[in-house]
Design a protein that fits this description.
This protein is an alpha/beta fold. It has helices at 26-38, 58-72, 87-100, 117-127, 141-144, 150-156, 172-179, 198-203, 218-230, 233-246, 258-269, 286-299, 306-309; strands spanning 9-10, 18-20, 23-24, 44-46, 78-81, 104-108, 135-139, 162-167, 189-192, 208-209. Helix content is 43%, strand content 12%.
């Protein structure tokens, strides 16, 4: 794609199926991708938070990028997370993504050392021209400790190479102000992370969701997006309730890692892929897996799966 790439619709943050700490579950990865494409997703985001990107070795990241791009085979856009603590590693990952056939990259604020807004702006201005693909900026303050403040994004709006922003802050006042930047950059796409807020975000000018639950039930999120775009309030209300019912899986466990654990566990329960977690985390214990299975069984009325029928 060109520098004018626009992401819209449901662009799931791909979970990374693993067999062990440095081995992909290749069969699971292939099955998962086909499951989501068959569910109507509009794009795919590899090596994001849900994909445990920062916990994976560079060799494995490269293999994942190559395998994802090869299998997708340009049926939908693929974007790749390149956030790193080292400037040069982000550049290297962008080149690997470009060579593999990805359509864009996703960049959050460097973690560990928190940058001030002036430092962050300068960092982005230096990095983006070095990147091989169009860039979607990624606001994830709960994990990186730094926001992309609205005024910083406004100043960066004159930088060629940036094509939009993904926001996972969960702050809808921030998101509303973010979408107002469309008056200056109508070509930018604004996408939201928290899946229970996706329908609401469309009414604010958002163009879609990067929703982890779409790894498991892609049709649910695609239908919700389509209903929101169509302005079908009654349908949105029904689908919002289903999204919130599915979201009960994220209440299992007590650590922040429960969000990724639950998504991986759900994919495993559906028979899509292994649920091995990148260390230092571990998959759900049997009692938590059982709780999750109970939640998914309730979802089966509308989104049946062969795997759950056998439970």
């Amino acid at each position: 794609m060109t520098k004018q790439m626009q992401l819209k619709g449901i662009v799931p943050p791909l979970i990374t199926p693993l067999k062990d700490r440095d081995t992909l579950d290749i069969q699971g990865l292939e099955k998962l991708i086909e499951h989501m494409i068959g569910g109507g997703i509009h794009g795919l985001f590899a090596l994001g938070t849900t994909g445990e990107g920062p916990s994976l070795g560079y060799r494995l990241r490269k293999e994942l990028i190559q395998r994802v791009c090869h299998q997708v085979d340009r049926r939908i856009p693929v974007v790749v997370g390149i956030t790193d603590t080292a400037f040069v590693e982000s550049v290297k990952l962008s080149r690997i993504a470009a060579e593999a056939g990805a359509d864009g990259v996703v960049l959050s604020t460097p973690y560990y050392f928190p940058a001030g807004q002036t430092e962050l702006e300068e960092y982005v201005r230096k990095l983006v021209p070095e990147l091989a693909l169009p860039v979607t900026l990624y606001n994830m303050p709960s994990l990186t400790k730094v926001w992309f403040e609205i005024e910083t994004l406004r100043r960066l709006s004159n930088l060629d190479g940036i094509v939009g922003v993904k926001d996972s802050s969960g702050d809808m006042v921030y998101y509303s102000n973010l979408c107002k930047l469309q008056t200056e950059r109508p070509d930018w796409s604004f996408l939201i992370g928290p899946e229970e807020k996706m329908i609401e975000s469309i009414s604010m000018g958002g163009r879609g969701g990067v929703n982890g639950g779409a790894n498991v039930y892609p049709k649910l999120f695609v239908e919700a997006y389509e209903a929101a775009v169509a302005g079908d309030a009654a349908r949105c209300e029904v689908l919002q309730q289903k999204i919130e019912a599915f979201g009960e899986i994220y209440s299992i466990g007590k650590y922040t890692s429960r969000f990724i654990k639950a998504t991986k566990c759900a994919a495993s329960v559906l028979g899509l892929c292994d649920d091995f977690m990148a260390e230092p985390f571990n998959r759900f214990y049997p009692q938590d897996r059982e709780k999750l299975e109970g939640i998914l069984k309730k979802m089966e009325v509308d989104y049946p799966s062969v795997a759950l029928e056998r439970l």
